[in-house]
Design goal:
mainly alpha
Length: 103
């Protein structure tokens, strides 16, 4: 990472400072990091909501369970239809998540 050797003083109105603080908080960044991203033209995205993060975690756990089912099928313990059903349900969850994100 290049050395940061320049400091810039930037004067903002109360409203501008509130907007900067709000956007930085929304993205989970410091004001400085946000401004650097704006200057370099990098994408700036809002941090996922806590609800969405919990949903992603649950989907991860479901994926782990499906892997366990697949291992059981390969070991002859579970039926292939169990694995197919698990994959079908995961696909349904992905579709719902996609719709949620697009809202």
């Amino acid at each position: 990472m290049p050395e940061k050797k320049y400091e810039i003083c930037l004067r903002l109105s109360d409203e501008e400072r509130e907007q900067l603080d709000s956007k930085a908080k929304e993205c989970g960044m410091s004001r400085t990091a946000l401004l650097r991203r704006m200057i370099t033209g990098q994408k700036i995205r809002a941090r996922p909501s806590e609800e969405l993060r919990k949903l992603r975690l649950e989907i991860h756990y479901i994926g782990v369970n499906i892997n366990q089912i697949a291992r059981s099928v390969n070991a002859g313990i579970a039926r292939p239809s169990d694995a197919k059903y698990g994959l079908y349900m995961l696909d349904q969850i992905y579709e719902l998540l996609k719709q949620l994100v697009e809202q």
